[in-house]
Each structure stands twice: as C-alpha cells, then as structure tokens.
Amino acid sequence: MKNIKRDKINPITVIIILQILFFIVCLTAITNQISRYTQSQGKEKKAERFASVKVCSGETLWEISKRYYTDEYENIHSYVKKIMQLNNMTDEEINSGAYVIIPYYD
User: Are 104 and 51 spatial neighbours (Cβ–Cβ below 8 Å)?
Assistant: First the structure.
C-alpha cells in the first residue's frame, strides 16, 4: 500500500482565517447598526397636538377631518371617531359657529 501523505494545516493559518471571519462579522454588524440609526434619524417622531376649530356654515365633520388628517392616524374613519370621542359627540352632526377639538400632528 502506498503511504498517503496528509498535509497538516498550519495553526497560524487557522488563526488568520478566524480573525478575518471575525472582522467580517463585526463589520457587518456595525454597518447594520449604522444603517438603522441613519434610517431612524430621518423619521422624527411628531407630537400630537390639539386645535379648537370653529365650524363654518355648511361645513361637515368629514370636511374638517380631511383638512387635518395625516398618515399618523390609522385611517380617516378612525380619525373621525377620535374627533367624536374628544368632543363627546354621539353622531357626526355639527352646528355652524360651534367649536370642535381636532387632534393633529405637527
């Protein structure tokens, strides 16, 4: 039988390969964190505020809601419902000259 010669892996080579892999993992993690931080900086949290709005003649709650509605709210229907709750309203009817509390984001 022939003697099969096996090359031994140099321990220094193994250490260098492990260091390179460790460096790549660390670099990937750091890049990921920087990317998340950069994305979060672009999305500043807006504060919800409240305004007292005088109802003009012929205006409806829906018309007023559409003026102040923004994407921070789930949808226009839930926004109208929130306005009704804030103003202790049982229906959508509003009277000219009355004041309505309207939430909004600035």
Answer: yes
